[in-house]
Amino acid sequence: MGDEIDGFTRSVSEAPPTHYTVKIQSFSLLLKNSVEKYESGDFEAGGYKWKLVLYPAGNKSKNVKEHISVYLAMENTSSLQHGWEVYAVFRLFLLDQNKGNFLILQDAMGIERRFHRLKLEWGFDEFIPIKAFNDASNGFLLEDTCVFGAEVFVSKERSTDAPSIKHVWRIDNFSKLRSECCDSQVFNSGDQKWKIQLYPTGRRHGTGTHLAMYLALADSTTLTPGSKIYAEFTVRLLDQVQARHIAGKANFWFSASNPESGWARYVSFAYFNNPGNGCLVKDVCSVEAEVTVHGVSNAL
Domain of life here (predicted)? Predict the structure, then answer.
């Protein structure tokens, strides 16, 4: 473990950064041309776009003197949901080209930082003293070239105003369904793909007596290991006559190992097949799913 200074930790590692490295050549030209701020190309980590922002002579807006300032910033946030928040633990790297290892700065105790619309970047005002950076014996700047890097681990994310998405599935020729499980068309909510699953002859302890109904991730294999999606959902069997809909409501952490949630005994065959209840009219039934994704958790 490295030294803790003013809430952040310095350490040295031979392992290169997992997500991104950038080589800056002719570094002295940045100063010569009075480039106050250098921005790297963007890179992806944790499902988001990021970039490094470097102030070669220090961040003047923070009154930084005699130090290089380096920050991690989010990119392409305009497409994110209203009220979005992303929590991340990150480490910033600087290559010692003499020894082939990296100086690493990170927040002490692995503190996660909250990125949002009004705070798009976090980092270190005093990443390294300019004098130490320029000293060739330290290996940070050789032949006017340096290498910075970053690792970003998104720990959680959420939207404070998560939209509710409704999807209606019309099932024609219900009596002719032969599959054990029938899937709706895929629909989107909270940047995830979903489907409704109907078991016409029942499932598990409801087999032979009840319809079974579930909400499921359409393709859970796309989730990274350890990822979970917290969703609030309602599945309604629509009464096409009097609008006395049957509804099941639940909250669930969906994941690759638990991609579905619902009811093995959603509604009895007796109720479903009774013409007066409006569930099945002219061999057609309609199911509506309302899904609100409240958060996503990713394993570090």
Answer: Eukaryota
Q: Give yes or no for a contact between 70 and 103, defined as CB atoms under 8 angstroms apart.
A: no
What is d(CA 35, CA 60) in angstroms, rounded to the nearest whole number? 12
Q: State the DSSP H helix or E strand holding residue 295, giving kind and residue range, or none if neither.
A: strand 285-297
C-alpha distances (whole Å) from 216 to each of 125, 197, 210, 265 are 46, 7, 19, 16
**CB neighbour list of residue 121: distance below 8 Å, 6 or more residues apart:** 53, 71, 72, 73, 74, 115
Strand-pair category, 192-199 with 182-183: antiparallel
Report the alpha-carbon distance of residue 4 to residue 211 in Å, rounded.
60
Q: Between residues 110 and 3, which one has the greater pLDDT?
A: 110
Grouping H, G, I as helix, E, B as strand and the rest as coil, residue 29 is helix
Q: Shortest CA distance to 201 belongs to which of 140, 277, 272, 109?
A: 272
Amino acid at site 93: F
| Rounded CA separation 77/250 (Å) | 30
Residue linked to tokens 């991340």: 88
Q: Write the secondary structure of 93-111 as one string of H (helix), E (strand) and C (coil).
A: EEEECCCCEEEEEEEHHHC
Q: Which of 3-17, 121-135, 276-290 has the lowest mean pLDDT?
A: 3-17
Which are the contacts of 24, defined by CB distance < 8 A and separation ≥ 6?
30, 38, 54, 145, 146, 147, 148
| Cα–Cα distance, 101 to 93 (Å, whole number) | 10
83 phi-psi bin (left φ>0, alpha ψ -120 to 50, beta other): left
Distance CA 28, CA 34 (A): 10
How far from the centroid of its chain's Cα atoms is residue 61's Cα?
31
Given 3-state DSSP classes, what are the helix, strand and coil percentages for the chain, each rounded to the nearest 5?
A: 10, 55, 35
Q: pTM, whole model, 2 decimals?
A: 0.56
Give the pLDDT confidence score for residue 220 in this predicted structure.
86
Q: What is the C-alpha separation between 58 and 56, in angstroms, rounded?
A: 6
**Start-to-end CA span in the chain (Å):** 19
